[in-house]
Amino acid sequence: MKSLLQKESIIRRQTEWDNGETGRNVYNILAKVKITSSPCKRTEKMFVKGHGPFPKYLKRFNIRNSDSCVCGYLGNPIHYTTSCLFTTSYLLTKPSADLEPLWWKRVQNNKIFRAKIRKLIHFITENEALLFPKEGNNN
């Protein structure tokens, strides 16, 4: 009985996940619903979701006035991991638009890339004053 309920629950959740409109970044990486959790750490999950110390995310909550990085580009995880001048020590190869879902999967399945992402988020958090100067401060 328990396994039958568990199977039915997974089937329902998979249908909801397949037909959902939110969480598509995560869906592109983890399309299959599982009972066991992902081996990813919290910072890696934040990165995939676009949450955390990224201007694009912080602007949604009016924590920042701009969703741009100080170098002028959209301040999202892809930018900080592939092209930001301030995070060159953490850069990975930028994917073409059509290969971006595969890139996300490869990053999440590679321990070295995941460690680099954790270090990147730590770097961004530790250097917030340099990377995200207070708006309106002309000093």
Give start-end ranges of low-pLDDT stretches: none
- Strand content bin: under 5%
Number of helices: 8
Report the order of strands and helices: HHHHHHHH
Radius of gyration, in angstroms, nearest whole number? 18 Å
The computed structural class is: mainly alpha
Count the E strands.
0
**Major sheet:** none
Helix percentage range: 40-55%
Between the first and last Cα atoms, what is the distance in angstroms?
A: 67 Å
Shape: elongated
Q: What is the average per-residue confidence, as pLDDT, rounded to a whole number?
A: 85
Count of structural domains: 2
Quick tags:
139 residues, mainly alpha, 2 domains, 8 helices, elongated
Structural features, described:
- This protein is mainly α.
- The protein has two domains: 1-36, no CATH class; 37-131, no CATH class.
- It is 53% helix and 0% strand.
- It has eight helices and no strands.
- It has helices at 2-19, 24-29, 42-49, 55-60, 77-82, 100-108, 111-126, 128-131.
- The longest helix is centred in the first third of the chain and has 18 residues, at 2-19.
- The N and C termini lie far apart (67 Å).
- The mean pLDDT is 85.
